[in-house]
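Check these lines:
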Amino acid sequence: MNAPSKIGQSIGRREDQRFLTGKGRYAENTAPATALAVLFVRSPHAHALIKAIDTAAALACPGVAAVYTAEDTAADGLGHLPAISEIKDAAGNRHREPAHLPMSVGKVRHVGDIVVMIAADTLAEALSIDYEELPAVVTAAQALAPGAPLVHDDVPGNLMCRWPRGEEAATEAAFALAAHVTSLSIRSPRQIAHYLETRAAWSSYDPADDLVTVTFSSQGVQIPHRLMCEKVLNLPKERLRLVTEDVGGGFGPKYPISAESTLIAWATRRLKRSLRWTADRAEHALSDSHARDLVATGELALDKDGRFLGVRVKAAANYGAYVSMFAPSIPTTGLAKVMSGLYRIPAIHIDFHCVFTNTVPVDAIRGAGKPEALFLLERLVDLAAHETGRTPADLRRLNLLTSAEMPYKSATGYTYDAADCVRLFETALTAADEPGFAGRRTASEANGKRRGIGFSCHLHGTGGIADEHAVVKVGPGGLVASVGTQSQGQGHETIFGQLLSAALGVPPDKIEVRQGDTRTIPQGGGTGGSSSTIISGTTLRRAADEVIRRGRDLAAERLETSPADIAFKDGTFEVVGTDRRIGLLELAAWKPFDGDAIFADKIDSFPTGVMVCEVEVDPETGESRIDRFTAVADCGVVVNPRLLAGQMHGGIAHGIGNAAMEEAVYDEETGQLLSGTLMDYALPHAQDLPNFAVETIVTPSPNNFMGFKGVGELPTNGAPVAVANAVLDALRPLGVRHIDMPLTAHKIWTALNKACPPPSA
């Protein structure tokens, strides 16, 4: 694109040309062929003592350079892989966080725990490991049962934390006044983020600088770099460089510090040789963090007119075997941020039991605790509507927040910055042709199908780490911008280039965006929480303003006038009232310069959305088909509508997968993962998805000077319950009240046969 772009313009993704022509630089593709291959030998048991490890046979194999165990990491003093978020119980005590060492010392706590690391020219596993298997706890209920086996000996009752939120007394008082209370218990299934590119890492050693460089697939290099150096490896920061180039999907699990990349950094220094590792799909399922393993009971109190009085939630979150980097706040504050939905709910109380089990640790996956929260809330709203003789649409209309109530502080303590929930809802129902649903239902029934309509009023609370220092360098060939966020496919090069192009009048093809290198970009917080445009976008715009300020001084010098007489417009500095001018890049050819800025706004925003889904269900087979899907979103000021639509499509697809088919299943006796490959873990295919109708409205956020909100996780928060409400609307006349996700054909068929058993022969 040769002309400067504008904010709000749909321009194509700059990254796609190299991605589609095989020129992407993913970690595995850039590893040197001479690097030693790494094998992480993992526990086959969910819970066991390590009695002995015989490494002699492995060390005797040709080409084996090293075999490391926890004895080696302990000898070098490798530390704990820490969490950087925290929660506290009612007494103010921090969550329990037992040691999570890179390799297991004496005991393994889930299938997939690392026991041995082998580095070799050609990989072969020739080890003898003696385990003493122990009883395992797999579900939250098992872990909390009296006398349950302990995952960690120093954590009584397997309770990581009992976490409260909201005012209990006020909520009890609200329920005492209720004319009606609707209750529902749900189980939100555990899920795995199956991105296209599994995690990979390779390393090199520079003896001149005693420098280890690790190139790996991540959502940001700066936080892992700090934690590796300060908490695990006890290493000066200048002795370790972390690099991330292109990333084939992240969704959360590529954000935390990992045992594998940390061990590769450590072993590279020991061996002074390059190493490389790529997880295969089965290893990925046992090593990358899972999410959404939650059981909860919710209650919704209403007055006689149908107005919401309060919500109570009692929940148990399965955290797996260890506390991952962001995990403490994912099920807990993730749920609390959105538990009021788009509604006026005066009182809310949440009571969480957070527990350890012998399963893969959990952390953030797209949505980060919010899809399951909104599933519970929006199912309660639908049920309450039917139980009180109202339609789901009318009950929502009665309780939606208005624009006049913004900013709105929810009963869980979070402040919604800006929203027009009523307009959002009515826009969605109009776009979905909700009045025409009755006719479509009649047509479906004539074909032997049941048709249902489902609504989802949803939101997201943006998060992440806003440790941003953006730098824009101006040279004769164009601009080079450095940011501390990390693209994993979102289109950062396009968006950030577009923002700078609009601010400085430089064509996007003359703007380079750099990321992911702790040597050249030491400050940054990576990408998570749907906040990169808020963080890097606003900071780049401030850096652009600084470019203009510094450029004005240089232009005044070059044009021999006072800076006060210089104006900047459309990429050119000019002396006001004359035809004397000099272009930005022309000025940089005379003297290169730059501009920089620190993030100076609030990271918080609350994008909102309403979805309307229609499904057909075949009552003979339980098969469901999504026929229509409408999504209207308010994501604040939109930089690029085409990329926003892409984020909406991807997020909806992710949410449909969560609703209809995805589930990580464990054997509840042995702790073995039964859905560890894509033969057993179902993901949505193209034929499972309808055409999406996506629209936007705009209420700018007052929390940053450009009015941005996030978008990436918003549709994943809303889509699961839109699908579920539609399916259960179709089944309600047949006596089915609720089905937990995933709503598979088998579960639907079973529920129908329980509600309407076939006549006996």
Q: What stands out?
A: Residues 66 and 119 are 5 Å apart (CA to CA).
